[in-house]
């Protein structure tokens, strides 16, 4: 299943770094930046998270809620958040259920090897739960700029 701009964002229920349940529908009436990334504490993912952190106020000013999601555990997310002082929740999608909903768990090729992994993708969801933009060519160091354009 492919997710497209203009369609209703699939609702989900998943645990964040503190074991609290987050559902997409709880943010109805707000714009949501839902960003899927491969792994905590890797160079690209750290650059992306820190760019969103550094521009967090600008995102808030535009009415955005930021939610990161990867297949890392709650514990890894807690460490990542503490290490980089991240002001937004990170969902621990260990079972890849949300990844499957958004088609971000795919076969990837890296240095001639194929393996399943997270395709770095950001979904911008409007106040009514409709996908208004999909950023598939994420620039990790200026990601907030891509969102705020």
TrEMBL record:
Keywords: Antioxidant, Disulfide bond, Oxidoreductase, Peroxidase, Redox-active center. One of its GO terms (biological process) is cell redox homeostasis. GO terms for cellular component: cytoplasm. The active site is at 45 (cysteine sulfenic acid (-soh) intermediate). Its EC number is 1.11.1.24. It comes from the Bacteria. It catalyses: a hydroperoxide + [thioredoxin]-dithiol = an alcohol + [thioredoxin]-disulfide + H2O. InterPro entries: AhpC/TSA, Peroxiredoxin_AhpC-typ, Peroxiredoxin_BCP/PrxQ, Thioredoxin-like_sf, Thioredoxin_domain. It is an enzyme of class 1 (oxidoreductase). Residues 3-149 form the Thioredoxin domain. GO terms for molecular function: thioredoxin peroxidase activity. Thiol-specific peroxidase that catalyzes the reduction of hydrogen peroxide and organic hydroperoxides to water and alcohols, respectively. Plays a role in cell protection against oxidative stress by detoxifying peroxides and as sensor of hydrogen peroxide-mediated signaling events. NCBIfam families: PRK09437.1 (NF006960). Monomer. Belongs to the peroxiredoxin family. BCP/PrxQ subfamily. This is thioredoxin-dependent peroxiredoxin. The lineage of its organism: Bacteria, Pseudomonadati, Pseudomonadota, Gammaproteobacteria, Oceanospirillales.
């Amino acid at each position: 299943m492919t997710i497209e701009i203009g369609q209703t964002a699939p609702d989900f229920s998943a645990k964040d770094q503190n074991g609290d349940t987050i559902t997409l529908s709880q943010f109805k009436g707000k714009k949501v930046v839902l960003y899927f990334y491969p792994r905590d504490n890797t160079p690209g993912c750290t650059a992306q998270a820190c760019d969103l952190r550094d521009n967090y106020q600008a995102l808030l000013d535009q009415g955005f809620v930021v939610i990161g999601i990867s297949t890392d555990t709650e514990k890894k997310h807690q460490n990542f958040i503490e290490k980089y002082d991240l002001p937004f929740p990170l969902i621990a999608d260990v079972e890849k259920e949300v990844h499957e909903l958004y088609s971000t768990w795919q076969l990837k090729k890296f240095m001639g090897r194929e393996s399943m992994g997270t395709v770095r993708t950001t979904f911008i969801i409007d106040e009514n739960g409709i996908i208004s933009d999909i950023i598939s060519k994420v620039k990790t160091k200026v990601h907030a700029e891509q969102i705020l354009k």
